[in-house]
């Protein structure tokens, strides 16, 4: 995996070479139209950006030459330096030197810039009033220079999206060919399918890798944001960050950008106390905010922690009852984790005031929806008086997902692994009816259990989720899924395997069925429906008899 420094260097070189090409083009135009203010302004902008970028990353030779050229063009813009033939020659040579420096960043034997050319640049900048400037002839430039192209190119995200979609189609066909080759006793076909399998896998991961960016590209925007919000709120906040070099799909990073910004705003405006209040509580005057990214198996975890006042769970429970989300008798039995999950319900907010940066009707439900849309998970941990942590679990790629395959009524289904907690086998006697639904004690937790056949095939008014007589066999395969800190057991007929799948959207009229999140094609050629775990769990939350009768879901 590339280091953060290597990634920044590659980005700098690619941008610097673009600037170099643009400078050559613009200075040629300026020679023909020396009074063109627009061209002058664009040259000045390019040199200023190149100077700042080079200085930031530590390429001081490039920064120094850019600064000298920037100064020269600034004087030309202000009519303090004429765009004469001699001056034009020096400026062309200066831009050529920039190109050499950029191309030789990794060339340890290149040495220092030509002192004769640097002297000429200094002369035209420093001896403005002297009309008898004597410029040294630079012999090393000639018209037979070799042309070179950058080894780095910019690719539009939509082109990578298209490539990934094509690879997704290829993966589906690859799986079918591999499956057919297993059934047929043909050694040549098996060899070809094995080779196709390797090539497709390499292609898939190469394109996915091309879409990866360092999380630092987002994290680096937050020091200024935190400072501005804290200043507006009259607070002092120290920000620490880690995991800049963790790689994630660029589209995923784009989707969660606003969500992370919202969480940071909330932490500062509603979480971290004013300095005087912190001192009264025996806390340091400055609030602490940490933003940490880490790899978690095949996913990426982003953790945002503040050391503010935390969330008052008593107020949360009270608000749940007041908003008629649950009866008081059920709220009493909710665990702290489950109670906190209701903060993601639409319109659920404990904020008592509107500030410049938050409290304008955009709640945590918007954050939750964004995370759901990419197949991620989010949860809250909080201690009153101590602080709050938001943990985002994100896939590294959108198009290809790890999934668990199973069968119900001879129809294939898949559940994304990010929502799958565990798989258990229970005897029918271990399932109990409570308040019209089945529940089971699984590793010390009382979890609601539903037979997927009934959920998908029986009319709601005829549904009896507590009827065990409809189950097949004496032992039940149960997939424990989790969404928004709530667990649900799903009974299936047959379990198969874990597999990477390419999820395609459903066409009409199935796209109207909320319980399905898409479709994929298996190697056998059979269609496999992908279940939408958030939709299934929300469905159960909306069923009042389930909520009223079962204290754990």
From TrEMBL:
Question: Domain named CheW-like: which ranges?
Answer: 400-542
One example of a Gene Ontology biological process annotation: chemotaxis
Instruction: Output the SUPFAM superfamilies linked to this UniProt entry.
Output: ATPase domain of HSP90 chaperone/DNA topoisomerase II/histidine kinase (SSF55874), CheW-like (SSF50341), Histidine-containing phosphotransfer domain, HPT domain (SSF47226), Homodimeric domain of signal transducing histidine kinase (SSF47384)
- Which top EC class is given? transferase
Q: Does the keyword S-adenosyl-L-methionine apply?
A: no
The Histidine kinase domain extends over 195-398
An annotated Gene Ontology molecular function = phosphorelay sensor kinase activity
Q: Which GO terms describe its cellular component?
A: cytoplasm
Reactions catalysed: ATP + protein L-histidine = ADP + protein N-phospho-L-histidine
EC number, UniProt record: 2.7.13.3
Which Pfam families does the entry mention? CheW, H-kinase_dim, HATPase_c, Hpt
Q: Which residues carry this modification: Phosphohistidine?
A: 48
**Residue span(s) of domain HPt:** 1-105
What domain of life does the UniProt record list for this protein's source? Bacteria
- Keyword annotations from UniProtKB, A to Z: ATP-binding, Chemotaxis, Kinase, Nucleotide-binding, Phosphoprotein, Transferase, Two-component regulatory system
Respond yes or no to whether keyword Transcription is given for this record.
Answer: no
Name the job this protein performs.
Involved in the transmission of sensory signals from the chemoreceptors to the flagellar motors. CheA is autophosphorylated; it can transfer its phosphate group to either CheB or CheY.
The molecule here is called Chemotaxis protein CheA
Species lineage: Bacteria, Pseudomonadati, Bacteroidota, Cytophagia, Cytophagales
